[in-house]
Design goal:
About 30% of the residues lie in helices and about 35% in strands. The chain is an alpha+beta fold. It has a single domain, classed as Nuclear Transport Factor 2, Chain: A (Roll), CATH 3.10.450. Strands 1-2-3-4 form a four-stranded antiparallel beta sheet, with helices on one face. β2 and β3 form a beta hairpin. The chain is elongated. This is Gas vesicle protein. It comes from Streptomyces violaceoruber. InterPro entries: Gas-vesicle_GvpO.
Length: about 110
């Protein structure tokens, strides 16, 4: 009986219960991109920053293609700050910057 309990505790089900915080910044970045794309219906181009937040969650800056144009250097992109809780669930997001693809940071 004790052997069965220890086998259940170390099996694949336990691995699935890990939080985003325990899985690290890569998992948080992927979760933020998926959640944001589903809400705003624009494709994510990449992630600019990932950092831990004070509440054991993550703050991820996702770059999104908002207005595709030809030539591509004139397309409009935006940076969104996405906050996730410790389980990787989206808590809030906001657009923090909008810019032309060909523009350099000042």
């Amino acid at each position: 009986m004790a052997d069965q309990r220890s086998a259940r505790a170390t099996g694949p089900a336990r691995a699935r219960k890990k939080t985003a915080s325990a899985q690290g910044p890569e998992h948080a970045a992927r979760a933020a991109c998926r959640s944001l794309e589903g809400l705003i219906d624009h494709p994510a181009e990449g992630v600019s920053a990932v950092r831990r937040s004070d509440d054991d969650g993550w703050c991820v800056v996702v770059d999104v293609l908002e207005v595709p144009r030809i030539p591509d250097t004139t397309s409009l992109l935006a940076s969104y700050e996405v906050r996730l809780d410790g389980a990787g669930e989206l808590q809030e997001y906001r657009r923090v910057r909008r810019y032309r693809r060909g523009a350099a940071d000042e």
